[in-house]
Every structure is written in C-alpha cells, then in structure tokens.
Amino acid sequence: MNIRNRTPLHRLPVVRVLFAQAVVGLTAAVFCGVVFGIVAGYSGLLGGLIALSANVYFAFKAFRYFGARSARAVVQSLWAGEMGKQILAAALFALVFVGVKPLEPIALFTGYLLVLGTGASALLLLKNNPKH
Known about the structure:
By secondary structure, the protein is an all-alpha fold. It has one domain. It is built from five helices and no strands. The protein has helices at residues 14-36, 38-62, 71-99, 105-120, 122-126. Helix 1 (14-36) packs antiparallel against helix 2 and helix 2 packs antiparallel against helix 3 (71-99). The longest helix is centred in the middle third of the chain and has 29 residues, at 71-99.
C-alpha cells in the first residue's frame, strides 16, 4: 500500500534548500551582471534557473510518498525524479543555447554549478533537525 504524502511541497524541509538555491542563483546573476556585463548577468541567471527548475521538479517527484509501506513507491519516485531532473536540465540547456543570443557560456555554467553546489550542501543548511 502506497502512502501518499499529503504535506504540501511548500511545507517540506526541502523548500529551505530550494530557497537558498534561488538566492544563490540570483546573487550570482547580479554579481556577473555588475562585474562582467549584462550578457553575463542574464546568462548566469539562466544557468541558475535551469538548475533550480530541475531541482524543483525533483523535489516534487521525490517527496510524493513516505513510510515503510511505501518503500517501493519511494524508490521509484526518487528514480523518476532524478531521471526527469536530468532530462529537464538537458532540454533547458538545449533551449538556452539555441534560443538565447548573445550568451556567455562561462557565466551560464557558473550559475548552474553554484546552484547545484548549494543543493549539494543541503545537509549543512538543514543542520540536525529538518523541522526548524
């Protein structure tokens, strides 16, 4: 029996990580824009948005189920979320490279990697108790 998580996404602890990623992405975009110019600024913003939107998709898919009785559904949901995240990120990169001219690829990947790095340090952000 699959136990569906009825907690809305905005009430889950992962929202703090997503918020931190949004702040880092926006800060990187502003920094790139001020230091390197407007093209680098929006390129950095697009990179951050690619990573953030893929992570929001993953969070939505990954936290659909909970509990020991839903172990199979949890694993399937995590797998589907991760595969969807990778496909979404690749598709968004393709759209940006095809549709955005001019583009600064270094700023794009810098924004992307900074947002990913924020997600990778999620354990530091959540500390010991994810409820607070």
